[in-house]
Specification:
The chain has 273 residues and is an alpha+beta fold. It folds into three domains: 139 residues, Cysteine proteinases (Cathepsin B, Chain A), CATH 3.90.70.10; 52 residues, no CATH class; 49 residues, no CATH class. Helix 1 crosses helix 4. The C terminus is likely disordered. Pfam families: UCH.
Length: 273
């Protein structure tokens, strides 16, 4: 997947390759890292962003001599170099490995790690770098310490624009039909692969409505459900059975419960004394 030749006035654009993509050297249990880099380099919006050096061009102006301390600068150069390499060439992720603490400080070179976990750390670290850049750009513009070319540029939060989204969770009461909505910003969704025939099928299963009952039951703000266990004896058979009852209380209702002990001596005929 290589960039195509573009006029000098236009930034390079990502285009699918016709031949085999460049490879990455395994420098000792780095297959998890290589697979993540290949996936990111094959993501069109991020690939185009990296080919244009959009972050590093701003970063070195706002934070001079700190490009080796920026996770997104390191990733941007690695992806751009990988995309510009000849078909079938072999590149090295040595720079990313040396800067591993910028992405995941507890990861160690030579140790097997999880690819999905590393991807999440990379996305988070690069998004943090984007936010730091935006904050630094605003501070530099306010103090007049940057040129017009930098002051007039905005910061593209590329990780959020590429991977970010919003997940709406809705809980609906089947009694009062009231709805409770909650929106969370997300960068990924964990899907159950067993039993799913495709990604679309896994997504459909993820968003399928479910009834919350048992230990997962919610308490509605408008209705309080009170469960009572009532015992009833039949004197002629000397047996007992239990029934469960429930009643709906208004939101501002108060219930007073009293506990007392009973035994068979309180019965007289078919009445309770």
């Amino acid at each position: 997947m290589a960039p195509t030749a573009e006029p000098s006035s236009r930034p390079p654009q990502w285009r699918p390759r016709t031949g085999p993509p460049p490879g990455l050297k395994n420098l000792g249990n780095t297959c998890y890292l290589n697979s993540v880099l290949q996936c990111l380099a094959s993501t069109p919006p991020l690939a185009t962003f990296c080919l244009a050096s959009r972050h590093s061009n701003q970063c070195k102006k706002v934070f001079p001599n700190r490009d080796n301390d920026c996770a997104l600068c390191v990733l941007e150069r690695q992806i751009a170099r990988l995309l510009r390499a000849d078909a079938g060439a072999l590149d090295s992720p040595a720079k990313v490995i040396r800067c591993m603490p910028l992405f995941a400080e507890h990861f160690r070179w030579g140790r097997q790690e999880d690819a999905h976990e590393f991807l999440r750390y990379v996305v988070d670290a690069c998004h943090t770098a984007d936010l730091r850049m935006r904050k630094g750009l605003r501070a530099a513009a306010a103090s007049g310490n940057c040129g017009e070319d930098v002051r007039g540029q905005g910061v593209c939060l590329v990780m959020r624009e590429t991977f970010g989204g919003a997940l709406l969770s809705q809980v609906k009461c089947l009694e009062c039909k009231g709805e409770s909505n909650k929106t969370d910003e997300i960068m990924d969704i964990s899907l159950d692969l067993p039993g799913s025939s495709s990604v679309a099928d896994a997504l459909s299963r993820f968003f399928h409505p479910e009834t919350l009952d048992g230990a997962n039951k919610y308490c509605c703000e408008r209705y309080a459900v009170l469960y009572l266990k009532r015992n009833k004896w039949f004197l002629d058979e000397g047996s007992m059975y239990c029934k469960n009852f429930h009643c709906l209380l208004a939101k501002d209702a108060k219930a007073v419960l009293r506990c007392f002990r009973v035994d068979n001596n309180i019965f007289s005929g078919n009445k309770i004394m």
